[in-house]
Amino acid sequence: MQKLLLTCSVLAAALASACVFVHATDESGEHHHHAGGAHAAATLEARSDSHLTGKASFTESEGGVLVELEVHHAPPGWHAVHVHEKGDCSAPDASSAGGHFNPATKNHGSPHAPEHHAGDLGNMWVDEHGDGHHVLLMPDLTVADGPTSVRGRAIIVHAGVDDLVTQPTGNAGGRIGCGVIQ
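The structure corresponding to this sequence follows.
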């Protein structure tokens, strides 16, 4: 019963993540996001003997920060994504990035739940080719300087799925990708 409940929680969170943001397409077929304001970015590099590569962008917009993450060469399946407190990816296992970014000292949870770390970005699906794309609007983050700014922090892709319940990490496993947000 506990496994069924956990599976349902993860699937519900994944479905909610898929419904967070709508892309607009112009006549050229290019996707455009209706967002503006301060911007930050990160280049993700492999950690913990993975081959993951990727990039992330953070754009302030009305209602929060639009986070867009793209990865390649990652293991297929669900992977937790978090903003971590330190912009340091120097350790081979990315442990140098510290814990989840949590300026309001809340419990870990789904990014769509009232109670969650500011850095809880949910789960990203990676297809059978190793490619994943994750987009969501995070109302608890900013790009501009301040206590909730993502600048100078790290974005981490984990080896496993975030169960969205286990404190304080979601039981997401090792850190397979890390990028400093600048």
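Residues 2-22+37-180 form a domain with the Immunoglobulin-like fold (CATH 2.60.40.200).
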